[in-house]
Description:
Helix content: 10-25%
Number of helices: 2
CATH topology: lipopolysaccharide transport protein A fold
Mean pLDDT: 77
Distance between the termini: 108 Å
Largest sheet: 9 strands, antiparallel
Number of strands: 9
CATH class: Mainly Beta
CATH superfamily: Lipopolysaccharide (LPS) transport protein A like domain
Shape: globular
Radius of gyration: 27 Å
Low-confidence stretches: 1-38
Structural class: mainly beta
Number of domains: 1
Strand order of the largest sheet: 1-2-3-4-5-6-7-8-9
CATH architecture: Sandwich
Amino acid sequence: MYxxxxxxxxxxxALLWLAAAIAAGGCSQxxxxxxxxxxxxxxDQEINDxxxxxxxxxxxxxxLNARYAAEYSSRNLITARTVRVDxxxxxxxxxxxxxxxxxxxxxxxxxMVARGHVVLETTExxxxxxxxxxxxNREQKILVPESQLVRxxxxxxxxxxxxxxxxxNLSHYEFxxxxxxxxxxxxxxxxxxR
Length: 194
């Protein structure tokens, strides 16, 4: 029995057209490589092991280290991943450390936003944790939006709430709403027997 060759060639041509359509569709949706959230804009500079220090009259105020950073000059923006910020007191001693998955730094004002598993821990052991935090450089102030849950632990005592304002040393802080406290003060051993 005789079979025409046309159906096989038609299938090959159809497969080639399909492959070309898939390749063309994939190319049109490809985005330039860059940090998440930057859209199609490419960074002016990309830096591994990035460091940025803010000083006042030669005295360090804070030092930021990031595993990766990208600078966008047109927006005065630096985006960073795997962020650590060391804050210093007026004597130049480290007073607290902030860590986060990612951050953004305003290149002009040096204000920062930290996002993702944000932890701020003082040298005395007070620990703040949240998912998003702003640092206002000029005011030396930490702000957490009222939409974000904040947890502050000092020794065995825990405060939680929404919205937060403080200095980087967590010396003076204020929750904005829905504050709850768990106080587990330890009783000294000599008082337990009385």
